[in-house]
Amino acid sequence: MTAAHRVLLIEDDLAIRRFVRLALEDEGWQVFEAETARRGLIEAASRQPDVVVLDLGLPDADGKSVIAELRSWSPLPVLVLSARDREEEKVAALDAGADDYLTKPFGVPELLARLRVLLRRRQQLPAEAAPSSRARFGEVVVDLATHEVRRGAQAVHLTPIEFRLLAALIAGQGRVLTHRQLLLQVWGPEYLDRPHYLRVHMANLRQKIEADPAQPQHLQTELQVGYRLVGLALQAQ
Q1: OmpR/PhoB-type domain: which residues (predicted)?
Q2: For labeling, which of 129, 139, 221, 225 is most exposed (least CB within 10 Å)?
């Protein structure tokens, strides 16, 4: 019998905490609760959960400070669950190190789906460290060591910038990467005020590797926030 997933829920609203806990326990998951930022960080260190579900509006601190503190010592996946629906808030939380962001009100199926993605990604982390690893999504196979890309039986030629952009999304392992994060990684800090560079190269990348670039299945847009790579599997050679 496989061990139950361990979820830490940091949320000050008792009704939401109860709702989420019952939904997760119905899936057989073990849930730990904290209603403050301070208690949440203590629980994260002592309970060693597999994933954290975090509200931003905590009574003793903003949730983004919790993310920043966690990121100073742990790669633990963090799903933000917040009523703050402004794009600026989402971008700030993701830039702070959150892996995903779900806005209240939310449905249980979507919450569970997002958590399963984060848990799968966590299980794949050891493979990411392999220097000669390959990445696969759909029919596309990317050799991160040789920079070779194939879609089915056909070789795909990517420019150096397109490959760096794809490699950054692969390294993100399915998490949302903000425009700022991608511009920094692919072009550098002097290009932070040129988001059109990212749009143009993402469009070119989709043309080369998506079956239907107008309705991408893998290189997906998070509106006004950034991009994520969906359906990724990593494999060591």
Answers
A1: 132-231
A2: 129
Taking the CA of residue 114 as centre, how many other CA atoms within 13 Å lie in the half-sphere pointing to its CB?
24
**Secondary structure of residue 190 in the 3-state scheme:** helix
Gyration radius of the chain over CA positions: 19
Residue 2's Cβ-count burial label (10 Å; 0-12, 13-18, 19+) is: exposed
User: Mean pLDDT lowest for which of 51-60, 135-144, 172-181?
Assistant: 172-181
Q: What is the DSSP letter of 213?
A: T
Q: For position 123, what pLDDT does the model report? A: 67
Comparing C-alpha atoms, which of 5, 18, 213, 21 is closest to residue 119? Answer: 5
Largest CA distance in the chain: 55
Q: Residue 28 class from Cβ within 10 Å (0-12 exposed, 13-18 middle, 19+ buried)?
A: exposed
Q: Three-state DSSP class for 218?
A: coil
Measured distance CA(233)–CA(55) in Å, rounded: 29
Least confident interval from 42-51, 124-133, 192-201: 124-133
pLDDT score for 234: 67
Which residues 6+ apart lie within 8 Å of 77 measured at CB? 50, 51, 52, 99, 118, 119, 121, 122
